[in-house]
Amino acid sequence: MHDLLTDWYFWIKSLHVVSVIAWMAGLFYLPRLFVYHVEVVETGSKTDKLFQTMERRLLRAIMNPAMIATWVFGLSLVAVPGIVDWSMVWPWVKAASVLAMTWFHMWLARQRKSFVSGTNSISGRQYRMMNEVPTILLLFIVFAVIVKF
Ligand code: HEM
């Protein structure tokens, strides 16, 4: 099994990066949709339903599968012998950041449901601020995996 993972290392890493890109695209875009949904769209209108459809499809068709693929390929990379040295700092920074990114994904999924039930209580400004979370985590993750401090 270890030999197999080593042979496929570059393929797994490529698939990991592709999944990461798809996941990040959604993590950046969904909170932007929420900003416009709160600030411009009237609750119960046709546009409200259209936004709900766009948000549901983005989350279910792109973000959920991309998050799962990122985890599956990422954990496969962890299992490749000699790739992660847990005595260094970077794997811990990366682990904490990906857990935070996953929490952010779940938070967005909860907010999506609040639009469906008409109970959203978060303002456009707050969604704009939350939109910075994935950017900050992305910086931590990329510096961790590439600089490997
Ligand atoms: C979800 C759980 C994740 C796990 C378990 C994981 C694990 C890993 C591991 C073990 C590597 C290999 C490092 C190496 O070859 O030296 C890697 C590479 C990489 N990861 Fe992740 N990762 C995860 C999520 C993410 C996320 C969310 C991002 C970006 C936002 C990301 C970006 C990258 C990049 C860019 C590389 C390639 C670095 C290089 O050039 O070698 N990963 N990941």
TrEMBL record:
UniProt keyword annotations, A-Z: Cell membrane, Heme, Iron, Membrane, Metal-binding, Oxidoreductase, Transmembrane, Transmembrane helix
Reaction catalysis annotation: protoporphyrinogen IX + 3 A = protoporphyrin IX + 3 AH2
Highest taxon of source: Bacteria
GO MF term list: metal ion binding; protoporphyrinogen oxidase activity
Entry keyword Transcription regulation: no
HAMAP family registered for this protein in UniProt: HemJ
Coiled-coil segments: none
PANTHER family found in the cross-reference section: PROTOPORPHYRINOGEN IX OXIDASE, UPF0093 MEMBRANE PROTEIN SLR1790
Pathway: Porphyrin-containing compound metabolism; protoporphyrin-IX biosynthesis; protoporphyrin-IX from protoporphyrinogen-IX: step 1/1
GO biological process assignments: protoporphyrinogen IX biosynthetic process
Protein's name in the database: Protoporphyrinogen IX oxidase
Family from the record: Belongs to the HemJ family.
Main EC class the enzyme belongs to: oxidoreductase
Annotated compartments: Cell membrane
